[in-house]
């Protein structure tokens, strides 16, 4: 399938990265994506923990509200949410958000829901007899949470939230839809700029972007599976 | 000639020798109980006889046919060897009758009517005539094990292997399973039993094989083994089952 | 506080009624229905192909087939760690340089299958692995061949375990179709973007967009919730 000409074309296409600052620019673009993902992840971890604890309270109304929020965030594609924040908020409420701000807002709201569900699952996975044996040795509720529930919950959460990071980075690729100058946008600029000199360079640019995403996400996936394996052995 | 003959069987897991040169034979209709401490290789021995484990050296001969390390037609050999495990291993998505019918119909391609009749007779004999359509989750542990035994029997095996079938049962359910096995022995079934129930072993066995460290240490009549074991290790092992410490 | 909230929500409803152009909505609803049909159509093909690819890969990895198993593993890592959007960019804008010209539809279906295959694989393989060794061995003990053990013992149990995960994947894949507009497929997002661009009917376009996805996905979500509850119940009941 790959003729000699095609191979020639590919090698020529990659030469675009040795021109000017093209490669550096692409990396900087990726950093924009990662920044948005990182801020969203940190906020999601914080709010998600609170949300997850809220989901385990006894009050029925609070639980119902949480459930509806979670379902809504799960049903709506993130891109739809992103459009609603970027275009909708501006019009309806007169709040003008930059693409970056809209992205962080949406990804945080989504991440909070997902993280919250993970936290809820982890909290509820601590078996009842753990609480019983905590009480049996005379611990207070606070001490039971601090010394028995929290460590077991965290242990469970670490690999799961690593996976959430991977998902968040993948989702962040959507920000190109709301006009953020990130890795794909810069890639397109490079392709445009070299249309005459290296007409086939899109293959190289998109391949590099593909593998950039892959490596960043893969590192987190790998960490998650290593931690999981180690936890299983211990 | 013996029905089942094991000669110079060797089995390693990685570099650990689990079975070191094990030889014995079982006559048709004989009941042999294998005793020994945990990790002595007795369960592995049963698994080798049923082809669930490959062996490194030696032979297993059933009815004049070498059955060890067959790869292609192992599933045909297994039809002649019934086995019941420690964990209740019924298929949870099938009712009792379907569990029993699966092997005879799919592996042996026998007539359904005939097998159903046989299955019903067996269920009657093990005291579960009304559980035909029950699902495993609706049965107690003892009932599940009795069904597992019937499932193996309906294949019309030449020899039955029992791997600690009562070890995971609640104490009050042990008896019903052992009774079934006892009846089977009285019917003349050839049986190879691994158990920790010493009284039962003594009552059912024609012969005791005592294993330790992957080897057969002692082979004896049950009366002799339990009253006066020849080997030092056999003596030590039996002491575990008699409680000789008293409060001062 | 409560009163304030009351007035507030009243104002929003009032604003909504006055600002939303119902005539416009009536006009564009057929566009949305058509687009939703297209979204569903592409999603369905993608899901069916993902199912096939996922099952095949799951069996390859479950049986640890030499050569094929590591290749499958590599594919799964690649698919799970890259966004569909980037996969589509590559298929649609980069491959033509190698002389491989795919239509937008082909790109979407290949992309969705490439993505969905690995998610389905994960679901199916972990479902296969929940069937314990002793189950397989007792299947072997009653003389079943390897194929029969798979057919009568492992698969029936794995199927019921995999249903909630499968539903979640279906929902995920339908959601993922929202990026298809990037390769000029006239799906829901595309229509909404068009209406915003052409008529500045942002509110209407976005509301209809959200409602459309809601109608598409709510049934799947309800089914998957139901399946999960049923499975949990069934597991409590079994040995």
Q: How do the helices and strands follow one another from N- to C-terminus of chain C?
A: HHHHHHHHH
Number of strands of chain B: 10
The structure class of chain C reads mainly alpha
- How many structural domains can be distinguished in the coordinates of chain C? 1
Give me the Rg of chain C, rounded: 23 Å
Distance between the termini of chain B: 56 Å
Q: What is the structural class of chain B?
A: alpha/beta
**End-to-end CA span of chain C:** 55 Å
Question: What would you report as the Rg of chain B, rounded to the nearest angstrom?
Answer: 18 Å
Assign an overall shape of chain B: globular
Main sheet specs of chain B: 6 strands, mixed
The strand count of chain C comes to: 0
**Mean of the pLDDT scores of chain C?**
86
CATH architecture of chain C: Orthogonal Bundle
Taken as a percent bin, the fraction of beta residues of chain B is 15-25%
Low-confidence stretches of chain C: none
User: Total number of helical segments of chain B?
Assistant: 9
Global shape of chain C:
flat
Element-by-element helix/strand order of chain B: EEEHEEHEHHHEHEHEEHH
Name the quaternary structure: heterotrimer
Give a short overview.
Chain A has helices at 4-14, 22-55, 60-75, 78-92, 99-124, 128-136, 141-172, 183-193, 201-233. Chain A is mainly alpha-helical and 234 residues long.
Q: What do you see in this structure?
A:
Helix content of chain A is 80%, strand content 0%. By secondary structure, chain A is an all-alpha fold. In chain A, helix 2 (22-55) packs across helix 5. The longest helix of chain A has 34 residues, at 22-55. The mean pLDDT of chain A is 87. In chain B, the strands form two sheets. A six-stranded mixed sheet of chain B has the order 6-7-8-3-9-10, sandwiched between helices. The model of chain B has no long low-confidence stretch (mean pLDDT 89). Chain B is 36% helix and 24% strand. In chain B, strand 7 (159-163), helix 6 (171-186) and strand 8 (191-194) form a beta-alpha-beta unit. Chain B has 248 residues and is an alpha/beta fold. By secondary structure, chain C is mainly α. Chain C has a single domain, classed as Orthogonal Bundle (MetI-like fold), CATH 1.10.3720. Chains A and C meet through helix 1, helix 3, helix 4, helix 7 and helix 9 of A and helix 3, helix 4, helix 7, helix 8 and helix 9 of C.
